[in-house]
Structure formats: structure tokens, C-alpha cells
Amino acid sequence: MTDLDDAPRRPNYAQLVVVVLIIGLLVGTQIFSHRPRLMTSRPWIEPVADIPARANLDQLRHYVAFYEAYIPKQRYRPPFGLTVETPPPAPDSPPRLGYSIREVSLLGMPLFAYPEEGFVVYVERPDRFAMAPLGGDDGVRLLEQKAGAPLSRGFAFAWWEHSWGCLLFVLLAAWSVLEIRRRARARAESGMM
Q1: pLDDT of 74
Q2: How far, rounded to the nearest angstrom, does the alpha carbon of residue 77 sit from its chain's CA centroid?
């Protein structure tokens, strides 16, 4: 043990606040997050727009069924029933325009997400998404022509919904900086260099 460890410790209120925020983030995530608890890299579809009926929804439904790409909905059920469950989609839910992403999460907290397939046509089922990629801007333009509406206009990927888990690392870095400053201050007060 050094003299630094024997020195009386003054409470560092900034560090206490950071520790309370870290604990609050971890506990809140475990109670409210629908994401898996382990380190995961999961595909997901962000809804963009409903496709109008004039776009021949039956033909789009057959296109999605023909392509047969499925994304499972790996949703974790938080304890205590404190979150609102979204009702399952109807068995004959219409095709929608979505944006395919891949989200990386840890301990139920999303760290980042990036585009995977881009714009897709998908049908939501209770346990999975059935989807078919549109093949870039040409596919989106063709779908918008059939729908008679600019379906993708105004869509912006909401990156903050898929990166708020980085707050944990920011808080850990803040705690480390405050600890380094506290130790430097204690050394200076004790006369150690």
C-alpha cells in the first residue's frame, strides 16, 4: 500500500453522479430493452412507408414470397411486464417499404447499426419479417411509379435509436478521467510526484 491509498478520501460528487448514471443505464436497459442480452449482430427492418393499394399489393406479396428471405424477430421479453407489448401484425398484413439494417448490441444496448440490404419490400409476421430487396435506387423508383407516390422521400435513418448504448462507454471514460484527476490531486496534496 502506498501513502496515496492511506490518504483520507474526499467524496468526489462528479464520480458519484457518473456511477449512478452507469447503474441507472444498466438497470434501465435490463428492465425496458427488447434487445437480446448477449453481444449480437442482428438484422432488422426499419419501417419507411405503407404502400398504397394501387401498387398491386398481391403482386408485391408474391414477389416477397418468391424471394423468401426471412429475418427472425429476436425480441427479448423484459421482466416485470413494464414495457408495452406491440400487438402482433394481422396474418394478411400488407407489404410495406422498409430499410434493412444490421444492428450490433451488447447487454441489450445498441452500439451501432449500418445498412445491409437498403430499401426492401417486406411483410411483417408475428415471429419474422419476410422481405425482398429492391435492388437499389432503380427498384425504389419502379415501386414509387407503381404506387404513384414518393414513398422514400423524407426517410432518414434514425441512427440515434441504434447507438444509444455507446453512452455506457462515454460514462466509463468520464469516470476514468475523473479518477485520474482525483488521484493526481491526492498526489499533489500529499506532496508525492
Answers
A1: 67
A2: 16
pLDDT above 90: percentage of residues in the chain: 25
Question: Cα separation of 58 and 121, whole Å?
Answer: 12
Classified as helix, coil or strand, 124 is strand
Judging by beta carbons within 10 Å of its beta carbon (0-12, 13-18, 19+), is residue 34 exposed, middle or buried? middle
Please provide the average confidence, as pLDDT, over all residues in the chain: 83
Say whether 44 sits in a helix, a strand or coil.
strand
pLDDT in tens, 25-71: 999 888 888 888 888 888 889 999 888 887 788 888 888 888 878 88
CA distance 35 to 186: 42
CA dist., res. 109 & res. 26, Å (int): 9
Distances (CA, A) of 139 to 2, 27, 61: 68, 43, 15
Coil, strand, or helix at residue 185? helix
Task: Give me Rg for the CA atoms of the chain.
Answer: 24
Decide: residue 74, CB within 10 A, 0-12 exposed, 13-18 middle, 19+ buried. middle
CA-to-CA distance for 90 and 69, rounded, in angstroms?
19
Residue type present at position 157: F
